[in-house]
Amino acid sequence: MRKLQTLVAAAVAATLLAGCGGGSTPPASTGEASGAPAGASGDTLVIYTNSNGEGRGDWLAAKAAEAGFKIEIVGAGGADATNKLIAEKNNPIADVAFGLNNMYFSQVKNEGALEAYQPAWAGEVDKGLGDGETYWPLVKQAILLGYNSDKISKDAAPKDWTDLWSKDEFRSRYERVTGLGTATAQLVFAGILSRYRDDSGDLGISDDGWKQVEQYFKNGSPAVAKTDLFARIASGEVDMGQMPSSIIADREKSFKVNVDTVIPSVGVPLAVEQIALVKGTKKKEQAQKFIDWFGSADVQGEFAQKFNSMPVNKSAQAKANPEVVDFFAGLKQQDIDWNFVQKNMGAWVEKIELEYMT
């Protein structure tokens, strides 16, 4: 159990999906240039991301400064960052966006807010993990159901999300969300609703599928504003809840709890966090240089060593924790039609918020 826990805990994202961080990220961080050759410009790049939590934003600001970039990091949940990019498409504030998964970036692309750019490292990644044109993959992250392994044995733990509301012992013992503005929350529901696809059903989902959503909200313990899930687990208020693999290691240390994770038979949603050039940036050349630098094998390799992430860059994987590489190699990914999800997610969110989220 502890080995699996360690592997999952080590799988840190650069955030969907989750992130794909699990919520709104910390305030903006700014790095001042030090004159290193990669940046070599006085312009400050504005970077939108949902993946600057757990110290990643501070690390990136410092490393970017060493490379000669001035950056201002603006953090937000995945859905919120997506909406912001789309709302600002005619007068963009951001120069670069990263951390958003395929589902979000496809929305931004469809709204005409991204500009095609092929990074210098494009040949070192699987282009199929992005769109091979405007957004390019950086890291992988698993979207997981985690539980207090100090209190619940693996045999007694839930085997799937649906166990939470269908089995008496788990009702009221799991944290349920009170908002759908994050990548992690939306990917959890994408993973659940995709199992109940019915083209003749409401928004492409069968009545049974919407029943699952209703029961999820009815039987869960609502998230508490400004109170971390792990704090609630540590206090015994709840025993389990959603989490991207990125947060587990730090949260375990901070709150002195041990968490194991559930891998349903259908697999888990896998978020691939991307990077893209914002259309209309007035600092295009500098933004392209930043993308070339950040996604490079050297930087992604350093990031993997620092945060135990799973880089997509094949050359960077040599520097990643071997246990993390092995974990993702053996991880069962849920088969999800992301085109179907992307097409319907906005309407799903609206229905959930109006009908079930009370």
UniProtKB/TrEMBL annotation:
GO molecular function terms attached to this record: thiamine binding; thiamine pyrophosphate binding
Highest taxon in the source lineage: Bacteria
The keyword Transmembrane appears for this protein: no
Keywords: Signal
GO cellular component: outer membrane-bounded periplasmic space
InterPro entries: SBP
Signal peptide: 1-18
Single biological process term from Gene Ontology: thiamine transport
Protein name, as recorded: Iron(III) transport system substrate-binding protein
Species annotation: Pseudarthrobacter niigatensis
Origin organism lineage: Bacteria, Bacillati, Actinomycetota, Actinomycetes, Micrococcales
